[in-house]
Each structure stands twice: as structure tokens, then as C-alpha cells.
Fold this sequence. Notes:
Blueprint: H1 2-7, H2 10-18, H3 27-37, H4 41-49, H5 53-62, H6 70-79, H7 83-93, H8 100-108, H9 113-129, H10 136-146, H11 152-168, H12 173-183, H13 200-212
Helix pairs in contact: 3-5, 4-5, 5-7, 8-9, 9-11, 10-11, 11-12, 11-13
Amino acid sequence: MAELTTLADPRIREVNERHGDDHGVNLGKLRALAKRLKIQQELACGLWATGDGAARLLALLICRPKAFTRAELDVMVREARTPKVHDWLVNYVVKKNPHAEELRLAWSADPDPVVASAGWALTAERVTRRPEGLDLPGLLDVIEAEMKDAPGRLQWEMNTCLAQIGIEHAEHRPRAMAIGERLEVLKDYPTSPGCTSPFAPVWISEMVRRQAL
């Protein structure tokens, strides 16, 4: 914790706070510290318990993802209220945990939109990597009915799922494109030069074009 304090930069914290995060540690330096510490599950749990943003990010880098129980991960996702901690928890830990599918189903139906967004992030992963058994038309039905009015983080993950369905599954591409065009979610999202817009019709079209090269 003392070392994390020395790594904190007020300027970085100011930038991060604009995006809803609460730490001031350069992520490159944080990864270097994690590389030095290596995997330490007990230390990771202790760091998470501090509630400090930088400490929790470090915890997610040095933990053993498969060691967490389903109940522990459910508590953690409800505690992860900042975007970066939430994102790393889902992508670096939950996706590698044997309870990921059970949690995907439970979280997707959770009334807390932040928790539900984790379920949709896991669903987008399955759409891309393991779509067998997924009801893709049913997912499109839910997205069409609920994405437009969903809170920010949940809307983002539902939109990601919509785009991945369109990119990976040609038979559903026309409907995915049509839903994106009609709902116009993230249509005006500011996109840096050289980056692909998160607006689903543009995202789908660009990725399909790249796949064809």
C-alpha cells in the first residue's frame, strides 16, 4: 500500500476521475509491480479488502482467477463500482473462472444495472468464442427492447453484444444492423482518429470488411 501511494500521480488521478475511476497510478507501473509480485492469492484478497482503487486493480493482476468461489465473485462484482476495476474483474478474473457461465446467467437478469452489465459482457464473450447453445434471436429481442433506455455501462455491454452478433454470425447480421440503425445507440460517440466507432452498424461493417481482407 505504501508503494502504491508513492506511485500515485495527482494528474493521472484527475484524468481518471473524469471517467469515473478513483486512482492515480500509471497502469504500466501497476503492471510492472504485479509482474514483480507474481501470483499471490492471499495478498490479492488482502489488497481487494482495502477498498482502494489502485490496490484492487493490483489484486486482479496477481490473483488466481480459478481460486474464487461463485459467491466470492458475486460479492466482488457488487463492490466493483468504478469502470476500470469492474472491467478488469470481469475480463481478467471472471472469464477464467469455472463459475463464469452460472454467473453470466445470474448477472444478466440482475436488477442492478452494473451487475447486469457484467452478465452482458460475459454473453458477448460467448457470442464470439462459444456461441453453441445461445439463443441469438432471443438476445436480439432483449437488446431491441431494452438497450435504448438502459443505463450507461449496461447499454455499452448490450451494444457490444449486438455488434458481436452482427460481426460473428452472418445469418443475424441484417437484423443486428437494423436494430443498431433504428436505436442509434452510441451513434454520436466521440471516436479518436484510427479507432472504430462503437456505433454497432459502423463497428459491424468495419470488422466484416477487415475479415474479408
